[in-house]
Amino acid sequence: MIIKVLGSGCANCKKVKAMVTEAVQELGIEATMVEVTKTEDIMGYGIMRTPGVVIDEKVVHAGGVPSKPQIMKMIQDAV
Description:
Largest sheet: 4 strands, mixed
CATH architecture: 3-Layer(aba) Sandwich
CATH topology: Glutaredoxin
Oligomer: single chain
């Protein structure tokens, strides 16, 4: 599983990355984490607001900070 966090590196983007990392560890899932920070790369996913979360090239969240339970559900749904 490849999980990408899309964002400029702002505080919210870092918070989402940290929560995704925690969720992956808690769920015991093997995943590769990737940060996408280039604006043109982020726009390629069709999102207008960051942070965004992409799991195996499918956008599962865009804009705002999801809760940890929401992140865990996104990951479980993608498994």
